């Protein structure tokens, strides 16, 4: 496995994923600021939140492409330095995609720790009345549950993205094997 392609591809993939995470968090944060719980009568009043759902759907659809693309890019950059086999492409692709996803997941968990209490505070300020005292402990459990969910998601997504990176790396290596590098 070549280290230069590994570090370049891992950094590029992590930066793309982290920027996406920050963008979704920012969109959600600014839409939450404009939410008025007292004026919500039905689902049609949640129009701006459809943007948040749309960004989540786009991320879900593009994630496999990003992870497999990470593996393919590793294979391409490795092939430019020396001939590549499918095994090396799969190994480098899996390591690059998995590490990049772990890094972006860690940033996501940190953003949750920092921003989620602000979200909840903003929502509670627009509530149509004071929060019942029996619900206050629920907010703490929701914050902890959100962070735990983020950690579980990061671990699970790391393995899935490593698998997709391995597939992308192996397929790209198979395409490049035996061809002269430019």
Q: What this model shows, in words?
A:
80% of the residues lie in helices and 0% in strands. The protein has one domain. The longest helix has 41 residues, at 136-176. The chain has four helices and no strands. With 182 residues, it is mostly helical. It is elongated. The protein has helices spanning 3-33, 49-81, 86-125, 136-176.
The whole-angstrom Rg is 21 Å
- Please give the domain count: 1
Helix and strand string, N-terminal first? Answer: HHHH
Number of strands: 0
Helix content: over 70%
Q: Specify the structural class.
A: mainly alpha
Average pLDDT level: 84
| Regions with little confidence, pLDDT below 50 for 5+ residues | none
Which features does this protein show?
182 residues; 4 helices
Structure in a nutshell:
The protein is mainly alpha-helical and 182 residues long. 80% of the residues lie in helices and 0% in strands. The longest helix is centred in the last third of the chain and has 41 residues, at 136-176.
Topology:
Layout: H1 3-33, H2 49-81, H3 86-125, H4 136-176
Helix pairs in contact: 1-2, 1-3, 2-3, 2-4, 3-4
